[in-house]
Protein: procollagen-proline 4-dioxygenase
Amino acid sequence: MTVLLVLLALFAPLACTSEVAYDDERLIGWKGETHRQAPASSDTEPWVETITHYPRAYLFHNFLSPEECDHIIELADPVMERSTVVGNGGKGVLDNIRTSSGTFIPRKVDATITTIEERIARYTHIPLPHQEDMQVLKYVDGQKYGAHYDSLVDGSPRIATVLMYLSDVEEGGETAFPKAFAKDKYFDPAVQGAGSWSACAREYVAARPKKGDALLFYSLNPDLRQDQFSFHTGCPVIAGTKWSATAWIHTEPFRPEDLLHPAHLPQRMWQCENVNESCEAWARAGECEKNPVYMVGSPSKPGECRPACNLCRPCPDGEADKQCILDNTRMVSDFLKKLRGE
Structure:
């Protein structure tokens, strides 16, 4: 049933739903597949633009409000870490192909994030549970994401990607498709403002980051085989800062059990709270030593049960309390070193 639902979504016309009223109720916001002068109000109204059919890629102009973009950055900024790629066994590993910093925001963590996720589901015709947790990335000073495919070879491959641009970028940072058919390029650079393309994107089908826009492209063909044209790259940021948020969408529900419980943001080092009500019982059962990844975490990613493990103290001044943060970091670091016998 799930696969049938996904196939229907692949063949269905794109839906561009929004709170804005349009004259054409059948294809709300659709501007067609050829260039057309956009009305003056298009600076704020959502509308859809086809970039290419190979791969199937569409640019949702004004998909997010400025406030939604800022909210995502606000949630993610304090817990950003060096980005990883998916390695053997599905684990994240460091690789020079990806030099950004990033973090994940759990699904339905608050009302704003839930609203955005529901909007993604409406635009793609694929239910929210098929989405992964939103990944937020930050690129500066030449940082990039080398050419790659998003589809994973497993029981539920990624069928589509929604890449949301959270900031404008002075130069670079485009999303380019090196294998796409250039002759099929519908995208009008004038729509996103003046300025030249970087060398990374100049010869290819590409989208320039613009705050509030979102790029949808499909990694799989309707027969669920990988679309070879979906090979893409995040071009180096030459000037400015690029913030983006990615929602990867699977053919099957992604970890549906996670949606059965209230979501929470990752702990921060100045916080000293047990995330789970069972933390104290787990600590008494020796889980601080047996399961340190979850209970204690690491100096860069605090665990969920540090108070139960006696490895933190509350920081009265929060993020500004540098000495308290340093003390909490040292407690975790010293505990892990002792556990490793160092």
